[in-house]
Amino acid sequence: MSSEAGGKDKDSEVNGTPVNPAGLRKPHQSTQEKLRNELYSPKKPQSNLSVNAPEFVPRKTTFSVTAAEFVPRQQPYPQYSKNLYEDFQDLQIGEYYTPSGEEVLNSFQETLTALISQPGNMEELMRVVIDQMKQLPESEQSIQDSVIEMLFEQCVTEPNFRYTGARLCKLLCKELKSHPIFKNFRGAFLTRCKAEYLKKDEMIANPQMVDRLCGFTMFIGELFLNLEVEKEVGGKMTLEKIGILRSPVLKDLLLILLQHPTDFTVKCATQLLKLTGSTIEDTAYLNTTSEGSYDEVFLQIRQLDTYPDLNRTSKCLIKSVIDLKDNNWGRSRSSNPVTPEESYQPVYQQAAEFTQNEPVFYNQQGQPITAEEAGYYDQAYNSYLQEEEEYARWEAEGFEEQNAWVEGGDYQAWSSDPNQLEYDNGYYQTGPYSENYMDEEIEAAYEEFLRQQPPPPQ
Q1: Cα 114–Cα 115–Cα 119 angle in degrees, nearest 5
Q2: Phi and psi for 437 in degrees, rounded to 5?
C-alpha cells in the first residue's frame, strides 16, 4: 500500500472508525502539497516598500512656530510703586456680607418659632441670628425695638415659651452687650415689661384680657428666676436677681390676681408661688423696705380658702401652697451643711406631710430645682400637671364635709339595688350625671353609644 493511501487511511479512520465529526471535505492533494511547501520554505516574501519613499516624507512647508500668528502680543506690565508686602496688605480676599434689618428680623422670627418645639437647641439655633445682629450697622437703631416686641409678645402669649424666652433674653444681654445698638438691651426690655405692668388694672377689669395678664405674670416669674445683673460686693463682681422684679412688679401682679379671685386667676397665682416662692424668700435682702414683704400675699391666699365661688380644685391648690410655705418650700430647715445622702430622707418625709399637685425636684446636693432643670420640658410637664389636677379633683370630690369617704364623690356608680336605679332603653343606669364628670357633648355621645347597643336578652 502506498504512503498516500496509508496517510489517507490514517487520517480518515481510527481503529477502523471514520473520523470526520464536522462533516468537512478534505483538501485536494495539490492543495495539501502547496501548503506544505509554503510552510517549510526558508524563503520569505520580499517587499520593495521603504520608509524613505516619497509617499512617507512630508513636503516642505513655510509654517514656523515663531510666526506672528503664534506669538501673543506684548502687554504693558503694571508698574508698582509699593513693595510686595504692601501689595499683600492691600489685597482683599473677599467682601463681608452685611444683612439688612428686615433679613435679621425674619431670621429672628423663624428662630423663635423653631424654639417652641426645640427649646434645648436655643444656643445652636440663635448662633446665626446673633452673628447677623453683630454685623448690623449703627444706622439700624430701630431694630432693637422690633426684636424686643417680637420676643415679648411670644413670651406672653405662648405658654410653652416663657421659660425659653427668659433664657433667650439672658443670652442676648450677654452676647450683644458690646454692640452699639444692643448694649442697653436689658434696660429696653425691662422698660417694655414696665409698660405692660402699668396696664394691670385695665387688663383685670376686662375678662378678655385676664388670660394675657396671667401669661405676663408667669413670664415675669421666669424672668425673675433667670435674669441677673452684675454687682460689686467686697471688691468682687457677683450676679444677683433684679430687685424691682421681685417687688413691686411680681408682688403687685400676685395681689391683683388674688384680689379678683376666679378659678383661673387663683390657679395662675398658686403655680407662680410654687415656682418662685423659695427664691422670693431667699432674696428678701433685695427689697429692704416693708414694701418688699410678701406677708400680704400669703394673707390673701389664706382668706381665699373659705371663698365660696372657687371649686374644690382651686381650694386644693391654695392648701398645697400654704402647706408648701409652712414646710419651708420642701427644703431642710437645718442650717448646718449636710451631705446629700443625709438630706434625702428628711426632705422626702417633709414632702409627704403636705398635699401638692406639683412635685418638688432636687439635684444631687439635695437642693430644689425647676422642672426644666430636672429634664421635664413644658409640653410634657403641662400634661403631667393636668393629670395631677384631675387626680386632685377626683380626690377632693371623694370626701364630704364630715370627711366621710363617698365612692366617686357625688357621682353614683352602678348599683345592684333596683330601688336606686332608673330603667332607660332597657339598661339600668343612675340618675343625671354630675357636670364634674360629663359635659353635654360627652353625655350626648355616651347616650348615642347606649342606643346603638343591642337589646339585652329576655
Answers
A1: 140
A2: -115, -35
pTM: 0.56
Sequence-separated (6 or more) residues with CB below 8 Å from residue 164: 115, 116, 119, 122
Task: Give the angle 362-281-204 at the CA atoms, nearest 5°.
Answer: 105
Mean pLDDT of 323-348: 62
Q: How many CA atoms lie within 13 A of 198 on its CB side?
A: 6
CA-CA distance, 160 to 103, in Å (whole number)?
Answer: 26
Kindly indicate the confidence band of residue 282, based on its pLDDT and cuts at 50, 70 and 90. Answer: very high
Least confident of 21-30, 92-101, 348-357: 348-357
Q: What is the mean pLDDT of residues 107-132?
A: 93
Q: Please give the pLDDT value at position 193.
A: 96
* Inter-residue contact 377 to 162 (CB < 8 Å): no
How many other CB atoms sit within 10 Å of the CB of residue 396? 18
Beta bridge partners of residue 229, listed in sequence order: 240
Say which residues have a Cβ less than 8 Å from residue 310's Cβ, sequence separation at least 6.
Answer: 261, 262, 263, 266, 304, 318
In contact, 316 and 355? CB cutoff 8 Å: yes
3-state SS of the chain: helix, strand, coil percent to 5?
A: 55, 5, 40
